[in-house]
Amino acid sequence: MDVLLERKSVRNYTNEDVKQEDLEYILRAAMSAPTARNTRCYSFLVIKNKETHKKIAQIHRAAQMILEAPLAILVVGDEDKAYEKYLPQDCAAATQNILLAATAKGYGSVWCGIYSNEERAKAIEKLFDLPTNIKAFSIVVIGKSTDNRPPKNGWDPEKTKYEKWK
Ligand SMILES: Cc1cc2nc3c(=O)[nH]c(=O)nc-3n(C[C@H](O)[C@H](O)[C@H](O)COP(=O)(O)O)c2cc1C
After folding, report:
1. 76: domain range?
2. pLDDT at 1 exceeding the cut of 90
3. How far apart are CA 143 and CA 103, in angstroms?
4. Residues of the chain with pLDDT > 90: what percent?
5. How many domains is the chain partitioned into structurally?
6. CATH code: domain of residue 131
7. Ligand 1 atom closest to Cα of 154?
8. What is the pLDDT of residues 79-123, one digit of tens each?
């Protein structure tokens, strides 16, 4: 399977668990993401507790699929460690690696955005009692997919320019 081309956002799951060895692979991939000046300012909170999933769903309107899934990973960044304003880029790279690693191991996943929505970020940071320097970036929901639709085809030659814009 070509993981890069097969990845898609999945919003329907079975309740089958994510195997611990697969979770470790996914986290290893997350921690292999590049960071500006190699600050490795990201951390990952693995959330399996269904009560916590419910609380997240109450805060995050577009993360209702978490109610079906066995697991979610909250990606956070440490503002005190990040280089300049690169925290969101670092956390985005880690988030994408999680999606790709989950795909590689046969799981569906979806990136649920937090960082740019201040109200949502504050509510999630409060829910997990995060220190003020730790910023909630995204929640990735992961599980066995029941969605058989093919991935979207993003290929568009017009999006590539060679050497010059015009
Ligand atoms: C920054 C960001 C935030 C996103 N937030 C959500 C979200 O809150 N809920 C959701 O269901 N999907 C979310 N998505 C997934 C997008 O909707 C999805 O990637 C897009 O529709 C393209 O579909 P694909 O991932 O299947 O290619 C987010 C994606 C990104 C990159």
Report:
1. 3-147
2. no
3. 10
4. 98
5. 1
6. 3.40.109.10
7. 27
8. 999 999 999 999 999 999 999 999 999 999 999 999 999 999 999
